[in-house]
Amino acid sequence: MVLAVAILIIAIIVALIFIPKLKKQQDRKAIIVFSFLLLIGTALNMGIALKIHIPSPLDLITFIFTPIRDYIVSFTK
């Protein structure tokens, strides 16, 4: 729990450092992308810190391509 709070505090500090710089440049798209990526990174790291099972992206790729592979292999038999 302490680690999750530390991750949240670090994310807030990073946001407080970089978002004002982006506001000065009036770069709205960069602020949105930065905030989105920071939010996703923070959420994933907090999940890991709280020992929540987070599936690998490779699991999704395997789920999608295994039937396709089996279909193609069936032609070679």
Automatic annotation (TrEMBL):
Where are the bilayer-spanning segments?
A: 6-23, 30-50
Q: Which UniProt keywords apply?
A: Membrane, Transmembrane, Transmembrane helix
* UniProt-recorded name of the protein: Uncharacterized protein
Q: Which species is the source of this protein?
A: Lysinibacillus capsici
